[in-house]
Specification:
The model is unreliable at about 1-25 (pLDDT under 50). The protein has helices spanning about 5-15, 20-25, 120-135, 140-160, 185-190, 220-225, 255-265, 300-310, 340-350, 355-360, and strands at about 30-40, 45, 50-55, 65-70, 75-80, 80-85, 85-90, 95, 100, 105-110, 115-120, 170, 195-200, 205, 210, 245-255, 275, 285-290, 295-300, 320, 325-330, 340, 365-370. Strands 3-7-10-11-1-12 form a six-stranded mixed sheet. Helix content is about 25%, strand content about 30%. The protein is globular, with a radius of gyration of 23 Å. It folds into three domains: about 5-15 and about 30-120, no CATH class; about 125-230 and about 335-370, no CATH class; about 245-330, no CATH class. With about 375 residues, the protein is α+β, with helices and mostly antiparallel strands. β10 (about 105-110) and β11 form a beta hairpin. It has ten helices and 23 strands.
Length: about 375
């Protein structure tokens, strides 16, 4: 009989490797991915059926669920007991603050708060991601295209962050992911029908950036991040004109903009006018000119958007109309504009293009290939 301390390992093996008796053959090893699902906060609530909790040494912990884990200095408090790491596994799913997740949940101390990481098979992660990034009810070829680029992006980031506690954020900073609660059969189909497929350029996995809608032309990575990438140079796209955010408008008081800029580290005062600067070939702004009581200041448009908020200034393709106390922004598109346009992909799929054709259009020179460790 195995000592009790080996039970967590045995359970994880059972959770993450399909039984040969069920599949009829020894399955290949599954690619694993680690997602930061909670960052910060004083506490997190965990629940589920048949859960097994272990500490940083792999020793089982006798705790009841639902369980509220508290943040403490250099530790997490589990029923008042400080541990450096709490791991929770289940045969089905675990809820974290009410959201369902497959695989393993780990809780770490992180500064003055908590870091919660979900480790699970990559393909399961993709199924949960589909309805966070698009709708699985879109044409199936668009769903397949999303599955391929999300898999590609995840594997690229995993390699880039292989020594970190997690590989991906669960927000727009990487890919939006909220667990397994909104999985459905069409999401499963999109992932299954493209199983293991990634985008490559000259044999290497690409940086598969994507965005919601481009507004007419995708953006060059050189204009956003200052790095010229052959397959991310921007293409003409007239396919996202039906996107909800293809045209947008908002009005912000100068004082509000000034406060947000100061919070972002830009020290200015007396803002009373904003002027558009030069534009690149896609029509997006390279810079904005801020007119203050102390003079004119030039700020990169991507930095301005980040400071004001990605969900507020939806893209850098905008015009400005200055008023006495506020400025109106009239814009097009949603997102940084680099790579695949999701709403454009939806339209192209509806027009009869398959996912490989869609991907080759938005990432020129790339190939769809099976992922290999080599």
């Amino acid at each position: 009989m195995q000592p009790l301390r080996y039970l967590p390992l045995l359970l994880l093996v059972m959770l993450l490797v399909p039984s040969p008796a069920l599949t009829g053959a020894v399955p290949p090893p599954q690619e694993m991915i680690r997602i930061a699902v909670v960052k910060g906060g004083d506490s997190v609530r965990l629940d589920g059926a048949g859960l097994l909790a272990t500490d940083e040494r792999g020793e089982p912990m006798r705790v009841g669920f639902p369980l509220t884990v508290m943040a403490s200095k250099d530790a997490v408090l589990v029923d008042g007991r400080p541990v450096r790491r709490l791991a929770v596994a289940a045969a089905s799913f675990i809820t974290v603050n009410g959201k369902k997740y497959r695989g393993l949940i780990e809780v770490f101390p992180a500064g003055r708060g908590l870091l919660v990481v979900n480790q699970l098979p990559l393909e399961d992660y993709l199924v949960g991601l589909i309805n966070c990034e698009i709708s699985s009810q879109w044409p199936i070829e668009a769903v397949k295209a999303q599955a391929v680029i999300a898999r590609t992006y995840a594997l690229y980031q995993r390699e880039n962050r292989k020594n970190a506690l997690y590989h991906l954020e669960s927000s727009v900073l990487d890919q939006v992911y909220e667990g397994c609660g909104i999985e459905d059969s069409r999401a499963v189909r999109g992932v299954r029908d493209t199983a293991g497929e990634v985008l490559t350029y000259k044999g290497k996995i690409i940086q598969a950036f994507y965005h919601s809608s481009c507004g007419g032309h995708t953006e060059s990575a050189a204009d956003v991040w200052g790095t010229d990438v052959p397959y991310l140079r921007g293409v003409d796209c007239k396919y996202c004109q039906n996107a909800p955010s293809v045209k947008w408008e908002l009005t912000l008081p100068y004082k509000k903009i000034e406060a947000l800029l100061k919070a972002g580290g830009y020290q200015l005062s007396g803002l009373h006018e904003i002027q558009p600067g030069t534009r690149n070939q896609s029509g997006r702004l390279n810079e904005v000119i801020l007119i203050t009581d102390r003079g004119r200041f030039s700020l990169k448009a991507v930095a301005f958007r980040k400071a004001i908020g990605y969900g507020v200034i939806k893209s850098t393709n905008f015009d400005v109309v200055n008023g006495d106390d506020a400025v109106r922004f009239n814009g097009a598109g949603y997102g940084h504009g680099v790579g695949l346009c999701q709403w454009g992909a939806k339209q192209r799929a509806g027009d009869g293009f398959n996912y490989r054709e869609i991907l080759s259009y938005y990432y020129p020179g790339t190939k769809v290939e099976q992922y290999s460790h080599e």
